[in-house]
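Appendix B, example 12.
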Amino acid sequence: MNGQIRTNIQVGDQVQIVLKQDQRTGKLTSGIVKDILTKSPSHPHGIKVRLEDGQVGRVKDIIKK
């Protein structure tokens, strides 16, 4: 599912994100959404979220709701 639209993402969703240090390689990190940090309804690089383990990145894929 599209990680560029804020309404697609809910707290508790399992997602794959790209961390800031992994943007060049595109390495994905999986986790559960704790907070949605992007305030705008959409973002071309993905909505920024904080995972339950504290990592912050942009959503590339929503695994399951």
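The mean pLDDT is 95. The beta strands are 14-19, 28-36, 48-51, 56-64.
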